[in-house]
Q: What sequence folds into this?
């Protein structure tokens, strides 16, 4: 019998290389935010998110996925999306002389718990939905708030009249608790032209690339909030429909 061909060591390290690149940009985002360059710090968090999206696909394409890679990915995500975004917002928006640092702790703690639960329940399995808001989405949405606050859409419309410096605290707390909630969020569909779901995934991917290239500051925070709100609304609607169905099923039993 022929021995199965094992992947080359260079191929095994390829997905982990993207994971470590995510860590590099997460740490660099923290350093850049501490220096006061918050706009560039957001860029580094976004680039880290791109690396995070690539590493899993590379592992599946090269058949080099491993438990080590899964654990490494979660540890890196805790830094790049659980700690770097709230710390950046602390430097950019929140007060340094009070208790606003607690929101950094809250966000980071919920991200770590969300990633630990993901490792136990969903890591290594094919996913159509996530239980709780994914940490890259939560961190990316929070980070791109700063971008959005610098846009014309923000500053020259009625949105600028809202108390955003106060509301950002509620935004951080809301995103934090959604990460550890049971609200289901749809996973990114795979790309294909053979199925409707694959076509939708391809369209979403192209739209994200278009927004990143042409309208990053106006695009990403609203899209992130739409995804966040969609999960909540879909969960509530599903709960109401299940509640309406239950008495009928009991009466016919």
A:
């Amino acid at each position: 019998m022929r021995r199965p061909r094992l992947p080359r060591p260079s191929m095994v390290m390829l997905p982990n290389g993207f994971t470590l690149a995510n860590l590099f940009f997460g740490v660099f985002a923290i350093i850049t935010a501490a220096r006061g360059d918050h706009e560039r710090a957001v860029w580094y968090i976004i680039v880290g998110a791109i690396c995070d999206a690539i590493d899993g696909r590379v592992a599946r394409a090269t058949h080099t996925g491993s438990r080590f890679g899964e654990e490494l990915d979660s540890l890196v995500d805790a830094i790049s999306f659980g700690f770097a975004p709230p710390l950046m917002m602390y430097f950019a928006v929140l007060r340094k002389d009070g208790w606003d640092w607690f929101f950094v702790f809250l966000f980071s703690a919920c991200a770590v718990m969300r990633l630990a639960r993901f490792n136990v329940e969903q890591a290594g399995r094919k996913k159509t939905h996530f239980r709780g808001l994914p940490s890259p989405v939560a961190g990316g949405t929070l980070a791109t708030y700063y971008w959005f606050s610098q846009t014309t859409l923000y500053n020259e419309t009625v949105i600028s009249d809202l108390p955003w410096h106060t509301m950002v605290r509620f935004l951080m707390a809301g995103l934090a608790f959604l990460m550890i909630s049971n609200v289901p969020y749809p996973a990114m569909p795979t790309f294909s032209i053979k199925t409707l779901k694959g076509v939708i995934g391809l369209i979403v991917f192209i739209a994200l690339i278009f927004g990143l290239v042409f309208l990053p500051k106006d695009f990403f925070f609203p899209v992130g909030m739409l995804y966040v709100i969609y999960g909540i609304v879909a969960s509530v609607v599903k709960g109401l429909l299940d509640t309406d169905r239950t008495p009928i099923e009991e009466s016919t039993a």
Notes: The chain is about 75% helix and 0% strand. Residues 248-253 have pLDDT under 50 and may be disordered. Residues 216-252 form the longest helix (37 residues). The first strand starts at residue 129 and ends at 131.
